[in-house]
Specification:
CATH topology: Cytochrome p450
GO molecular function, one term: iron ion binding
Pathway: Lipid metabolism; C21-steroid hormone metabolism; Steroid metabolism; cholesterol degradation
Low-confidence stretches: none
Distance between the termini: 96 Å
Strand order of the largest sheet: 1-2-9-6
Bound molecules: protoporphyrin IX containing FE
Keywords: Cell projection, Cholesterol metabolism, Endoplasmic reticulum, Heme, Iron, Lipid metabolism, Membrane, Metal-binding, Microsome, Monooxygenase, Oxidoreductase, Steroid metabolism, Sterol metabolism, Synapse, Transmembrane, Transmembrane helix
CATH superfamily: Cytochrome P450
Structural class: alpha+beta
Mean pLDDT: 93
Number of domains: 1
GO biological process, one term: cholesterol catabolic process
Shape: globular
Strand content: 5-15%
Pfam family, one: p450
Length: 500
């Protein structure tokens, strides 16, 4: 009798599993039918779509973004990719880029950004500024945060940019004396981390003087975790990866605990009537105050933004600086011209003023061209909720649209001889790129720290050119490493000499 019951239960369970699987397969088939009129690479399999190709590209040490460039060249400005039941449409058509990215009605794709809510189950960027897909949730935060990025406020940050860059110069003087090569990425990374700690949160940590800082390691681990968790849904399932997963979870915890402490310290300072800067932390607290925050949920959102500013506001600029140093090292004539401009504007003076920044025309071109070839945050996604015709192709609503600055900015169609590093493309008389150059994204969800980051990058690079000659150690790779953001694989190893 019991055996009979067990066999009935097993039968019904198997039938239920089979029915669910069948329904899922039918759904996948329906999704394929809906979008298969669009060009795109052949799927690896019916269910997995292109996931195995992505996994192979990630394992093979090649850059997945280069695969997207190849697909862009082969299949045109609109092509389709599948992952299980989801379809993602890659768009590199300037008109559609303008329409979608410039309009507030196309929201960030929640299915993409909610993957950064947690890292391996630990709350990470939650519903902070980058990840909030809901327009109202995002807009409230952005409106309150804007004053911390106004030109008046940014002007006042020149002192900090100068001070933190001077620390790097002091450090480089010591290195120059030893005549040994140094990894430039590690050093500029310390500067941008110091800057964000000081400018955003009023904390001075001096990472150049620290070896093996747990906080710096935690930021690094979180960035690595983002790639693993977002791009490989099966990573945490394999026991060989459990140690890494655990380390990443601890890193997230350390970051959020640090945020909690700094927020508490600032609250105490305010309660004690101390004069506090109107920095990003003040705005985060103001946000909480305006929203009448006191629930645990809202407290978590403050920490979401704490994490967001570390993730968004540091590596991206450090990587841009490293790529710029790499390209200047590879192109002596560009290096000479940039240095001549810096020397003419600064002479021997140490403190760079806000007005000086506006005069660095060629240096700005170098930085723009760096972000063209190496957009350190390579893309963004939007949710297409309604049908649209793009490049003559009807795209049914209900899919994710991917915009890759990396692909657009490396397409022959938009940038002649795209792999050539040529700052002349951004000469004032050169034609302006039309919605095919967007290293900071575009429209309402454009980077909040764009001006901030480029002020910081100019100060560091100008001081470097003014005071040192750097040459690349021969034989190193000029490849790109994808760690969520894009960075130079070699770390940019240089010999440093003081300028005579
Ligand atoms: C070279 C440096 C940087 C690059 C290339 C860059 C690029 C980007 C890109 C592409 C986005 C859009 C992300 C998306 O749609 O998923 C973004 C958003 C954002 N970035 Fe940056 N970023 C840089 C530096 C910074 C800095 C220094 C800060 C802060 C101090 C910052 C804060 C933000 C914030 C808060 C957002 C979200 C904006 C919103 O949705 O309202 N970024 N950035």
């Amino acid at each position: 009798m019991i055996l009979e019951w067990v066999s009935y239960i097993v039968f019904y369970l198997l039938a239920a599993v089979f029915s669910v699987f069948l329904a899922y397969c039918l759904h996948v088939h329906h999704v394929h039918q809906k979008y298969d009129h669009l060009p795109g690479p052949p799927r690896d399999s019916f269910l997995l779509g292109h996931v195995p190709t992505f996994a192979r590209a990630m394992k093979s040490d090649s850059l997945i973004h280069d695969l997207f460039v190849q697909w862009g060249e082969k299949y045109g400005p609109v092509f389709r990719m599948n992952s299980f039941h989801q379809t993602m449409i890659a768009v590199h058509c300037p008109e559609a880029t303008k329409i979608i990215l410039m309009s507030p009605k196309y929201l960030k794709d929640p299915s993409v950004y909610k993957r950064l809510f947690n890292l391996f189950g630990k709350r990470f960027m939650g519903t902070g500024l980058i990840t909030a897909a809901d327009h109202d949730v995002w807009y409230r935060q952005r409106r309150i945060m804007d004053p911390a990025f106004s030109s008046t406020y940014l002007r006042g940050l020149m002192g900090t940019f100068n001070e933190m860059s001077e620390r790097l110069m002091d450090h480089l003087e010591e290195i120059a004396d030893t005549k040994t090569p140094t990894i430039m990425h590690d050093l500029v990374n310390c500067v941008t981390l110091d800057v964000i700690c000081k400018v955003a949160f009023g904390v001075d940590l001096n990472f150049l003087k620290q070896t093996d800082s747990p906080f710096q390691n935690a930021v690094e681990l979180c960035l690595r975790g983002m790639v693993l968790d977002v791009r490989d849904p099966f990573f945490a399932l394999f026991p060989k990866n459990w140690k890494t997963v655990q380390q990443i979870k601890e890193a997230v915890e350390l970051l959020r605990k640090t945020g909690e402490k700094w927020i508490q310290d600032r609250k105490t300072a305010i309660e004690n009537g101390e004069d506090v800067p109107k920095d990003i932390l003040t705005q985060i607290l103001k946000m909480a105050e305006e929203e009448k925050v006191n629930s645990a949920k809202d407290h978590e959102q403050m920490l979401d933004n704490f994490v967001t500013f570390f993730i968004a506001g540091q590596e991206t600029t450090a990587n841009q600086l490293s790529f710029a140093i790499m390209e200047l090292g590879r192109h002596p004539e560009i290096y000479k011209r940039a240095k001549a401009e810096v020397d003419e504007i600064l002479g021997t003076k140490r403190d760079i003023s806000y007005e000086d920044l506006g005069k660095f025309t060629y240096l700005s071109q170098v930085l723009k061209e760096t972000l063209r070839l190496y957009p350190t945050a390579p893309g963004t996604n939007r949710w297409l909720h309604e049908d649209m015709v793009i490049n003559g192709l009807k795209i049914p609503g209900g899919c994710s649209v991917a915009f890759s600055a990396y692909v657009s900015q490396r397409m022959e169609k938009y940038f002649k001889d795209p792999l050539k590093f040529d700052p002349e493309r951004f000469d004032v008389n050169a034609p302006k790129p039309y919605y095919c150059y967007y290293p900071f994204a575009l429209g309402p969800r454009t980077c909040l720290g764009q001006v901030f980051s480029q002020m910081e990058a100019k100060v560091v690079l100008a001081k470097l050119l003014q005071r040192f000659e750097f040459s690349l150690v021969p034989g190193q790779s000029f490849d790109i490493k994808d760690t969520g953001t894009l960075r130079p694989k070699s770390g940019v190893i240089c010999y440093i000499k003081r300028c005579s």
